[in-house]
Write a structure and sequence with these properties.
heterotetramer; A mainly alpha (342); B alpha/beta (155); C alpha/beta (164); D alpha+beta (372); A: 342 residues; mainly alpha; 12 helices; 67% helix; 0% strand; globular; D: 372 residues; alpha+beta; Cytochrome-c3 Hydrogenase, chain B; four-stranded antiparallel β-sheet; three-stranded antiparallel β-sheet; 9 strands
Amino acid sequence: MIAGLGTGFLSNILILFFIYSLVLLPSAALISYCDRKLSARLQARVGPHRTGFLGMLQPFADLLKLLQKRSAWDWSWEDSVWGSFQAMAVYASLAALPLGSALLMDTEMSSFLPFFSALVLALGSLLLGLNQATIAGWLGGIRVVGQVFSGVFPAFIAFLCVGIHTGGFRWKLLASAQGFYPWSWTCLTSPFQLIAFLVFIISGLIILGLPPLEGSQFPSEIDGGVVSHLSGRRWLLFQLSKFYGFLSWSMVTVVLFLGAWSLPDALVQVLEAMEAKILVSLMEFFWLMSKTFVVMLAVIWIASANPRSRVDQMTDFAWRVLSPFALVALMGAALWESWVVF
Amino acid sequence: MLGARFYASTLSRLLAWARSRSLWYVYTGSGCCADEVMNLMGCRYDLERFGCVPQSDPKQADLLIVSGLVSEKASSHLKDFYESMLTPRYVLALGACVNGASAFYQEANFFKLQKVSQIIPVDVYVPGCPPRPEAIMNGIITLQEKICGQASTSF
Amino acid sequence: MELLRFRKRFVDKHQLLSKIHEILPTSAVEIRRFGREGPLSLWIEVQSLLRLCTFLKQDSELQLDLLEHLSVAEFEKVLVGTYFLRSYQTQEQLILRISLIPAASEAWVEVDSVVSVWPMAEPMEREMQEMFGIRFLGLPVGPRFLPEYQGFVLRKGALPGAFT
Amino acid sequence: MIEGLEWIDWKLGPYHACLPAPMVLRLKLNVDTIVQCEVETGFLYKGIEKIMETRSWQAAMVYADHLDPEAAIFGELVFCMAVEEVMGLCVPARAQFVRMILAELSRIVSHLAFLVRIAKTVHSEVILHYLLRDREKILDLFELLTGARFSLNFLRFGGVCTDMTEGFLERVLEICDNVHIRMREYNDLFIFNDRFLNRTLCLGVLKPEWVLGCGVTGPNARASGFSWDVRKQNALMGYEMLDFAIPVGTGIRGFLGDVHDRVVVRLEEMAQSAEILKQLIETVPSGEYLQEGYAHLKSVPAGEAYVRIESARGVLGCHLVSDGSSSPLRVHFRPPSVGHLMVLPALCEGLSSEDLPLVLASLDIGIAEVDR
């Protein structure tokens, strides 16, 4: 075997490829289908059900149609710069995902990566906006950046509270501190952690824009902001980058607060005894993904039921309300750890 | 071994099926017919069952639903609106005003109201003033069949 | 069940005439009833329109501070402009009528604009200016409704062959 | 204004997502806030009044429909009443009863369409579809009575064209109770939702001097504190027999006359219309539905008339001149949206460009009636 690499390295690579190609990338189609059917049910109507059985093939029809759109103007070098930058942002948000105990490269700072991928996404939107000649593009790009910075600050502090509780920022450490049953999840261990959990969810929504998967049916700005210049494949790439940002943010939320991939201990011992390591990692992954999907659909449902507030109202809310709560949660978590020894 | 023509035809049929099953539409209207298109978005005549999602920007839409009168002043703007859509694009024309048959088109056409077919190529006409929502849905189904090139299967 | 149609009578004729004497000589004003049993309508010359309107607005007892409708009709080549005035407090109505005779069917006609008295007249005057060819002096320039037509659209002999 | 940075010119073209109908807004932006706004219309000019001069009297009624496509009955009503006043014709009580029911129902339909446009700009999709679902129920009523959903063409001079189909009044009663239940649903989910409150309070305040200056009438004027309703002032259609309140903007939350007041006033007007329908249905007058002998009107005696009615958007005035021939000499409508369009530039000063669609939707401007 290659020196220094564990025996399971090749099997890990195989499982990682299987997970990325068959579960993570198509999850965009699954979530967009569930989102359209769920929001249709909420609005007392029937979602797409003419394409394929119960409309299952609707996302694939949309994908194939978008790939066929020929852009009316030729591909200039600004677009290629933006295209490569956005592809890098998508890779960044997907590369740093906590996928299960046996599969990841775990370093001391590995759980900081999703924040930097969110910032890279915001920078991508800003560059896209400024590169367009339209006013809507400029204003949209600047608004996105203001929105993301106001969201990242309280989220980062809430993330530190979890670090205090678990004593480190490794994914393994964060996951092993939480058990399978809800009362052992970090968000329910102390009231301050609960505040940190709520602050993390809401600031995540502010980063990704409320509602997160904002279709271009009713744009927030008058002219659709950053999306106004895009069409066809570029629009698809931009929407996918927003979707995978939302997917990685929900995964991080599940890992930090909602009991990551920890299965019941009895089940783990039995499987360990049977030397079925790959089965354990797969079950852990699917347990993590099911919780992530539940979080995503709940967030979409809550966000789409309420009217949307203006961008400056969102940023005011983030600075004036979320940040103080995050700081209070930080101090509380620190005191809780030092005084209350369990 | 099946000939290359077989693969080309199945691929083109698949692409045509994809184009027909996800027509994202944007509508320009004067009044009565534009209200009917707004009602189509509702729950009784849900257009999203056919995969038609309303878009706000012509760049992201591929079906233009034109309705109402096109006066001389508005015809150049309608042309620019249609040109800014990306190919492949389709046009569904609603109502009688669109092909010059409604109450406002006099013999001598006093205010130079124009027919939409003089300005942009139209794929499907829907009669009625204003056409009933079921008629508009039938128009969309015929457009889907036209894109697919044959009678539409339930698939 | 016959619906009674009651109409508030306006200040009676003599009181109105005495009020207007300070501005206009009696010969310049003619009082007639509008429609079958409508309110009073004053036929006045074109030159004294602006002066009378400012008086009617500032007068404490009349307080006609709303120009709710301004419409122009063509009777046998004579353009008759009708100003429907109403006071917000007492909901009383008064109608001013002026008649303008264009030199030819394509010629402009001049009238003082009442935008300085009632700002709400601006859209209506701009429409009449474009459709009937009445130039309102003092009306701020604004965007046109229609592209350039030769002649005025709503005049009877507007476009040959279309309707006449 | 930052030195060296002059204002950005932005032309919102005729066909745009946030505009209710084709019109052009020329905005001057100071980075994000609107400094100046100029409105240009005329894209929908069909020449209704010119064509009416060449049509017979009954055919001219069809053109009066296309004045305001959403609430088509009001254009017909004002033209019909003007002709009846010129001829001195009195309408039998049962015809007045049917006209009032149709007027109140289309007022509810127009206000629901207004709420749909507000929900669109504020991107609350759930409430949008509930509104459209309830609007469909009332459009079914129109279909049951007149056969058409929008341009009804149901009035004749001196009455109505056919009698009420049976089962119509029961369904109207259902609609009235339905309106009250739905209002509670709209209030909790949408109108008094705190995110909608933040978005609409103290936004686009319509000052009282603008209302008098620009001739704003109807719900927009009532939201700014003017309790002025034509149905109460001149007794034309028998409204004086019914007791209903005129909802006026109170401005408890935020300023008097802001967007939230305009939305709440229209909601209360829908409740009042439901009340009116209930009172009407209690006393159903009998008798014929059309003044006999006037079924096919050949010619109207020479004369003039000016009639105003309270349409869904405001006061709709019609000045009719007839010279005894078989077609009207001159018909001129003064739609309420002319005043609302004139007030828009004044409202836009200092507005953030993100709020423009909401203020534009809250004024409920009907471009089809401005460009007759």
